[in-house]
Amino acid sequence: QLTTHIGPGAVELDYKSSNSIRDTIIVTDAQVTSLSSATWDLYQGDDIVTITGATTTLSATLEPDAGAFILRVDGGASVTGTLNLQGNVEADVVFGRDTSFVGSMATAGGKGARLRVWEGATFTGNAALTSGQDSFEMQDGTFTGNFNFEGGYDSAYLVRATIDGTLDLGSSGSHAWMFESYIDHLEGSSSSDYLYIQNTTIDTVSLDGGADYVYVRNATLPGGIDGGGSSDRLYRQCGDTDIALTSVELTYQTCSLSEGSTFPCPCAPACVPVPPPPPVFECTGPEAIVCSLCGEVIELDVVFVVDASGSMTDNIRAVGRGLTDFIRGLSERDVMPRFALVLTGLAPELVVDFTDDMDVMIEVFARVEPNRIIPDLHYRHNDNEATLEAIRMAYGVAPQSTFPAPYAHVHTPNNTAVSGNLEWRPLARRLVIICTDEDSDRPYLSANKAIYPGMSGTNPPSTWTYVQDPNDSSGAWASELADTVAALTAWSEEPPIVPKTAVYGFANPGNGKSKQQFGDTSCDTATGADGFSGFDANATLACLVSRGYGDSLNGKMLAAGLSSRFFSITLLNDPDEAESVVKNFFDEVVRSVAVCESRKRKRSEPVERTGKRQVAWQPECFDFLCDPFVGCFTRPRCDPECLQCTVDGE
């Protein structure tokens, strides 16, 4: 779980991560050239490499040896070299907007590899995905060279793509969808391949394996289709341009392919009727994929960690006023939330243990009084605001993770109040919302303080270091921060499953070492007019790294590919502006947690929703639809509030 940042400047280096797993390499606005040995060895696997920035160039051989591997190239970056994916399972290589790659790519051993070339990206060289169940996806990209599938049951999906070379579907059982694209040569060297060609030009097509099926609509195939003497079959509409065929049986279709109809559609009696091909995706029935924004209801556990010292009175009021809309906003989406509230200042206190009763959470939050004892609710909080300690206790990783909770509102079957550890649901996504106007002080509870003997005072020292040493007066604070980050960034999709965490918060960048601990809030980069929507995680992380805060909580979360944003709590100082700031903040949090990690999910067993009636949220600006030959796709709606409209159907 090491993170290496390579920033601006000319760099000549090799990279080796022997016996290391889940490492992250981030190259931003750098010009990197490998040494003559020229190989970056990423052993053990589960590594992530991000290359971004219009001035970024990288020349190297990347050779991950095992596990999952993710390569992201974006923001106009250029890469030359070789990608040798050795034994990787579900390797994911993406060349994004206006990027370029010159070299070669090959897989060996791991199934489910994916290569994506998007939005003006260019790939020059050859690629071979050889392990089976692999995919090649292009949209508005250019591939110059030869692409080969060799493992079987692979898929290619091309939209407005250009391939100057050969696309070879390799072993049997592959599917290829081609829309508004150009391909120099298409090869089907094995049997039982399915090709769907629409508004696409392919100079030559060779099907050598036998028993292939080709469905054509408004396509241009000047070289015809050569079946190689095998029993291939072409389906096309009556009236389409004739196609020269060799060893291919032709079947006509005369139906009108109006907008919204299935392609290929059933045939009219005037031509030879043929049954439609078997659908690739199930759009109806018990095994149907779900194409809504969220394919299944998400469990979400939300913990508020709030500084309840005296200086926070107005800030807590402002946050509390926006809490009602936030909680109800979650309940109206494909989310089953639970809420907990922890107050800091002296001993962290569990005021509300996890509950799905949103009315209780709203009521309790409204009664919180900073720096005061509220009988039957919470005790007095002031000074020693140990936010990081409270987070580790919430995750059960502190030596003492049992919260003092004399008045805790814990909703158990018999409605009894108990103190103890927070119990997260095993598969629930996790969201931590932080609200503080100070940096995080030394742990308050003795057992939690004892593991950092170097901390000599309540507040962080004037000299900060990210070098960890629990016995050093400065390094102890870095150790505490690293332990907190480790709890927040630990996740696994393999048993035992550990769900992902998102962190959002208000912090005070002008107080003490808040920037070093939480990150510089001024680095938050968003394109929306409200300053919250349209978040750019890469730009935010690059800013944090350039200012020396890449190892802050926010920087580490973003480097791990997790959701994390911090805003200045001074935005709440103006009463006239605080309400809109809080609303925009919570709206952005709701947006972030309501987007599923996978839209193409099969529906799981029905989930019983508890508490008050919750209505599944439907997106306002897009229809999420299913096509049996395409899968899930979106169609924009024309709506006054969506800032979009269709013109002549486009």
Tags for this entry?
650 residues, alpha/beta, Rossmann fold, 2 domains, 9 helices, vWFA_dom_sf, VWF_A, VWFA domain-containing protein
In which range does the helix fraction lie?
Answer: 10-25%
The residue-averaged pLDDT reads: 78
CATH superfamily of the largest domain: von Willebrand factor, type A domain
Oligomer: single chain
Q: Largest beta sheet, briefly?
A: 14 strands, parallel
Beta strand %: 25-35%
CATH architecture of the largest domain: 3-Layer(aba) Sandwich
Rounded Rg: 28 Å
Low-pLDDT segments, ≥5 res: 254-274, 410-418, 595-619
Q: Write down the overall geometry.
A: elongated
Task: Count up the domains.
Answer: 2
Q: Report the end-to-end length measured between terminal Cα atoms.
A: 45 Å
CATH class categorisation of the largest domain = Alpha Beta
Number of helices: 9
CATH topology of the largest domain: Rossmann fold
Number of β-strand runs: 37
Class computed from helices, strands and strand pairing = alpha/beta
